Amino acid sequence: MNLLSAKNLSHSFDYELFSNVSLELNRNESIAIIGISGSGKSTLLHILSTLLKPHSGSVELFGENVFAMKSKKMSLLRRNELGLVFQSHYLFRGFSAYENLEVSEILAQEPIEDVLLERLNITHCIHQKVTELSGGQQQRVSIARVLTKKPTIIFADEPTGNLDKATAHEVMELFFSYIKEHQAGMVLVTHDEELAHMCDRVYRLENKELIAIK
After folding, report:
1. What are the residue boundaries of the structural domains of the chain, listed by start?
2. What does pTM read for this prediction?
3. Are 87 and 161 in contact (CB under 8 A)?
4. Which is nearest to 122 in space by CA: 87, 98, 91?
5. Are 204 and 34 in contact (CB under 8 A)?
6. Which stretches of the chain are DSSP H helices?
7. Which CATH superfamily is domain 4-212 in?
8. Which of these, 174, 178, 163, 210, lies nearest to 34 by C-alpha position?
9. Are 25 and 201 in contact (CB under 8 A)?
10. pLDDT (tens digit, 9 = 90+) per residue, 76-128?
11. Cβ count within 10 A of residue 8
């Protein structure tokens, strides 16, 4: 069974973004979606991650049609199985970095791992208020918060946008090792083709179509 199966997705705002897009994600697999600004790649990610309902088509996660689920079941699915990383980190600004991680620890009943903090190089600033951290540090805390909950599918929209090139590569390697260790999967949206090609499969969203390029 696939982790994710999307079929014939179409979506429009004032104009048609894409149509008849299909995509599958398996365990131990990473997928990257690239495309120019405005091509609809973030919208597609929002649909795949249950945040937005498509105008047509279906999305199955773990073999179930997510948009036919009752709201309580979908909420549990999001909380327990999905991890969303965005370029805007959405941290709780009144909390310290560690308190942000504790939210995931409590909800998922998973411990905060010291090795994760070390790999993301945030051990030295983990007890500072979020507002005292740099943009890059905030982004790494956001990634740590997502991985602390041990998601089965990671949805990442420009997760390295606030990071320098070396740190971005380290974060990608962390994602890949996490996927292998937890039999998980990842869908990545990025403008960075070099990072995209680190993934197992790469697609370009162009002219309303999703085109496989790797």
Report:
1. 4-212
2. 0.94
3. yes
4. 98
5. yes
6. 41-48, 71-81, 97-108, 114-119, 135-148, 165-182, 193-196
7. P-loop containing nucleotide triphosphate hydrolases (3.40.50.300)
8. 210
9. no
10. 999 999 999 987 778 998 899 999 999 999 988 889 999 999 999 999 999 99
11. 12
